[in-house]
Amino acid sequence: MISISEAISIVKQNGKPLLQPTIKRVQKAGGYELYEDILSPINMPPFRQSAMDGYALNLHDSLSYQLIGEVKAGDGHEPQLKKGEAVRIFTGAPVPDSANAVMMQEKVVVDGETITVSEQIPLEHNIRPLGEQVRTGAIALKKGTKLTPAAIGYLMSLGITEVSVYKKPNIAIVTTGNELITPGQDLPYGKIYESNSKMLLSALYNLKFYDVTLYKVEDDYSKTVETLSDALTNNDLVLITGGISVGDYDFVGKALKELHVEELFYKVKQKPGKPLFYGKKENTQIFALPGNPAAALSCFYVYAFIVLQQMMNRDVLELPRVKAKTITNFKKKGDRPQFLKGIYNDGRVEILDGQNSSMLQTFALSNALVFAPEDMSTINIDDELDVILLPQ
Predict the structure, then answer these.
(1) Does position 53 have pLDDT exceeding 60, yes or no?
(2) Parallel, antiparallel, or unpaired for β 330-331 and 284-289?
(3) Among residues 31, 150, 280, 392, which one has the fewest Cβ atoms lying within 10 Å of its Cβ?
(4) How far is CA 194 from each of CA 140, 168, 176, 181, 217, rounded to the nearest angstrom?
(5) What are the residue ranges of helices labelled H in the chain?
(6) Is 375's pLDDT higher than 80?
């Protein structure tokens, strides 16, 4: 059994970036990072554009102008304005090349075909110049840029429909156990509803990892070997829940050995999640998480999260940690370090009741894991502890 710091160090030493490109439709590329620079195929805006509703003017010395027409957004015609002439114009509409300023409508008085502006304005006033955002051939977004909703909108505005992005890992979630049945069915005596797969799937989706395959296997050795073999062959990361302990029907450890998975560590001095396995086979990394739901999710956030960040070649590998003072007393059982569910807010943290590794109700209310060291048996109000902030 190794320490938490040793386990984290081993994970960091063995994780590595995928660094593989894949092509994605822009509208489905949210959360991905660009594999290469994106060059703009057009000027944006592609024409001189009115920044507001008003009047496009060909400036002259007088405040009065002759109104000769109208240009609205989407119009393809281009009126020719002589000095002292104007056209009605709307936000986003193309400004005729013969106009050199736009006066906002609130500062214009209209009298039939004549308008009077309230003041003289400078050249190019209220006109968005051609290519103001980006010019044709210039870098629109740099390699490594994460595609946020704004970035997606920006690329679409340039007419770009596909991008080369860093491939995200293919991930397998394997659940084990004869006692598990799918929610929605009647619950026979001795059975429980399976929740770990959807819990981990939701955690992955929340982190923008979508290429996930779910496997379920009963407590049968040959079926466990067959299922894990398929998962290891077709995925970059395999998350197994249950079956890793030492019971008569815990077959995961034996199956991993038969499949020649290299064990990097097994069992960590921590609570919850002592029977945690981490290993690798060629380019596939494997976590065998405890079957208890709260333990499985805690281990996912503390350890598997690091591997996911490494695969995406990110600089920050761990979830954010802050110092916080407790607002509750807590009695820690045993001599292992513990990850306690809590609610963090503005430098203070509440350690919740119901810390059993099989219970998710408390975890459902939490936004943080509070780290209690092994040498701390009692936590008192105003004790300062490390707090891991969970993704929301």
Answers:
(1) yes
(2) unpaired
(3) 392
(4) 46, 26, 10, 6, 12
(5) 4-14, 149-157, 196-206, 221-234, 252-258, 293-299, 305-311, 361-365
(6) yes
CB 58 within 8 A of CB 100: yes
Element spanning 343, H or E: strand 338-345
Would strands 192-193 and 54-57 be described as parallel, antiparallel, or unpaired? unpaired
- What b/e string do you get for 31-57 counting C-beta neighbours within 10 Å, with b at 16 or more? bbbbbeebebebbbbeebbbeebbbbb
In this prediction, residues 37-63 reach a mean pLDDT of 97
Distance, in Å, from the CA atom of 118 to the CA atom of 62, rounded to the nearest integer, reads: 11
pLDDT tens column, 85-103: 999 999 999 999 999 999 9
* Residues in contact with 189: Cβ distance below 8 Å, sequence separation at least 6, in sequence order: none
Q: Which of 175-189, 274-288, 362-376 has the lowest mean pLDDT?
A: 175-189
pLDDT at position 6 over 60: yes
Rg of the chain, C-alpha, whole Å: 31
pLDDT in tens, 125-161: 999 999 999 999 999 999 999 999 999 999 999 999 9
With 0-12 / 13-18 / 19 or more C-beta atoms within 10 angstroms meaning exposed / middle / buried, residue 92 is: middle
Angle at 262 between CA 256 and CA 266, to 5 degrees: 75
Question: Ramachandran region of residue 351, left (φ > 0), alpha (ψ -120 to 50) or beta?
Answer: beta
**How far, in Å, CA of 249 to CA of 33, rounded?**
42
Cα 76 from chain centroid? 41
Contact criterion met (CB below 8 Å) for 145 and 165: no
Q: What is the mean pLDDT of the chain?
A: 94
Instruction: Please name the residues in contact with 13: beta carbons below 8 A apart, sequence gap of 6 or more.
Output: none
